[in-house]
């Protein structure tokens, strides 16, 4: 195929330089991108604030700011679960890297593209081009097209380099149940799923799973769209406020989880807490943030961040790990949050030193001291905060925390140091000379990634380990609900076919405790509120939460109202599909072996099970969670679950065949190793023709035998595997000759491909590249 090779062409180089100049018009680095013409890339408040915080030493300040003002180089990750990940890596190493390098050699000393040294197996790449350059520069067109196509297909994910770090520190194993609390748009969820699937053999599914949650429905949909490319049966997507993520806790004596799963609450081995933040670590990517930057944003998010992190820790198993991360530079959203949760957890949580885990990653220790700023006023201790500011400046923002109850100092003074009786306490805070606080916690174990260290965005990461149950923390606002005599009744899940999702109209109303909603996140609640939703496993009020209607009468009316409202509004129900006749017909038609259980693993999102259009496959751990969720009154608001595996063929042809359910592209990789009928192996040339022409008459296949076999298939859906032609599909799969396969429709006289055009195009290109390589290899062997 006529793909460009790495040779240096003078015209190309000239063209590249010309285009590059078009993009980077101004002298670097002060204003080095088109975007920088549009936005003011400075903000005196930002400079002042971060100089006060000693984010970097004064000697480093200029280089820090210089890099922060340049556009962010694009980075991307090869999805290790893709069939073609090795092909793509090799294409980058052997084709794009030398070709792009040849273009930039005389312009720049930095490598055009290179693998990120700290990311395993050369699967993550840094490019020395900003997104804008990739879009505008003609010479980069081929590379840009490649990135776009592979991203769409799901072979790569375009993601900021530093954002790839948190999942790596989570130490996920294939049997872990993982919660991604603020997951959308899903780049880290994707990574977590990849890690989970990494060590599972073809044809089997991991014992673990991911619950990806986000507050924003639209962003949840983005995540679903992203992850669809992954074809996983081990994911549930939920839509809750993370700080009120349901506990799904059963009465302790129940053991509905089966002998291999003793938990009666949905607890997690790993939690990723990538909280909403002010995002000033992304200034290189979003320069409009310069204009909007102010200290209020971080201050306003601090309390929500604590609540989300505390909820995450309470849902974490003892011994489990949680990673807290933000793309903010601000210590109020970072170290202050970590210090506060360590304070609240009283030794049950440890901050882990992971500095040796990714030795090539350049990171700096977390800060141990910082200041709180409100509207230009800098405060070093909560004792210094005047009464009028106590709603916005919380004690938890200071290195040593504290409480306004413990301090009467300044209590009569307003923000300018005026006391209530009108007498000015001149320079009040000066008089008291509060000393800067230094946190006692080992906050230096937190990690700060800064832009000028490795030409990236900025990020903050803290790794936390739960060493024992959390202490029960005082909840002031929580209404008293007497549930002592309430028995938790576990409605037998085996006869409940329909999982009609949780009886509550809104997540906000779901719990009785005080909460900070997304809407009022910039207005922190009363500062001395020792609120925390933390009541750990076992001693939680919710531990005895009743879920049958009889018991509803014993709890508060408002709670009862919420519990019996029916399914979540606007969300499709999750229904176990149990139509034996259909399941039997699918099994028989495709000859699905017993290693791939369908019973209990198929779902629909339609309560009218007589008219099911799509069937979703779920893995065993997902099944366990759904069953638990059913038993606890369907607390989870599930927007997506499992992988679409079968779809009813609506056409006239579909109605006349023995099995109207066709295998979907997403479901094919999952079921492929388990089907024994309706499957054929095609020679590369016939496979290629199928992708090229989409529909081929039986008589027109190059391999006449293949045409014959295709004629003998039952009418309806079938699968064509790329093989060497003379093997059966089962043999082809068995010898790992290939797991490249496509779903087709066997009609009266021809085979029709049932794959989208873009997938066909990508598959065709990959196939042609492999054929090219095989031919090259063959000819070099011949030459030898
Ligand atoms: C930093 S982004 C997460 C990025 C994501 N982890 C990724 O890697 O693609 C923060 C997310 O938190 C969500 N969010 C904001 N407030 C939330 C809350 N109270 N509970 C759950 N999610 C929330 C936002 O919708 C946003 O998608």
UniProtKB/TrEMBL annotation:
Keywords: Methyltransferase, Nucleus, RNA-binding, S-adenosyl-L-methionine, Transferase, tRNA processing, tRNA-binding. InterPro entries: MeTrfase_RsmB-F_NOP2_cat, MeTrfase_RsmB-F_NOP2_dom, Pre-PUA_NSUN2, PUA_NSUN2, RCMT, RCMT_NCL1, RsmB/NOL1/NOP2-like_CS, SAM-dependent_MTases_sf. The keyword Transferase applies. It is found in: Nucleus. Its EC number is 2.1.1.203. It holds the Pfam family PUA_NSUN2. Residues 64-467 form the SAM-dependent MTase RsmB/NOP-type domain. S-adenosyl-L-methionine binds at residues 182-188, 214, 274. This is Putative tRNA (Cytosine(34)-C(5))-methyltransferase. It comes from Medicago truncatula (Barrel medic).
